[in-house]
UniProtKB/TrEMBL annotation:
Lineage: Eukaryota, Metazoa, Ecdysozoa, Arthropoda, Hexapoda
Listed name of the protein: Complex III assembly factor LYRM7
InterPro entries on file: Complex1_LYR_dom, Complex1_LYR_LYRM7, MZM1/LYRM7
Location within or outside the cell: Mitochondrion matrix
Pfam families assigned: Complex1_LYR (PF05347)
Sorted UniProt keywords: Chaperone, Mitochondrion
Family affiliation: Belongs to the complex I LYR family.
GO terms for biological process, alphabetical: mitochondrial respiratory chain complex III assembly
Organism: Drosophila melanogaster
Subunit structure: Interacts with UQCRFS1.
Amino acid sequence: RRQVLSAFKKLHRTRQYVFQGDANALAAGRLKINESFLQNRNESSEDEIQKMIKLAQDVDLELRTNVIQAQKKEDGVYELRITPETTRLDNVVFNPDAIIEKPRRQRGDKNTEGCCGGAAMAALEAEVQARNK
């Protein structure tokens, strides 16, 4: 019972921290958290309760590390609120000249290019085009 109450309180604190200043998101988050806990209020299975507590902890971590707020300042300009816990990845500059190779076929995958790696189909198409000229 103590763990459930702790998870409930932690989710509400996380909601207040992550959605700080956004009244709509705060209200929707409160409603969803309360609704979820009320819906499972009569659960008596210890295993199910532990699974739900684990889910609440995972949701808490997801909210803290992967949600950012963006506020529109002007046309095309947004101010982001990124917290110290927000996951940051390396920013790799896009290379438009990069050659992206097709993935290799896995064992058991069906050949979608026809027989002979598509060579037979390519030859047939070339012949049809030559006749149409």
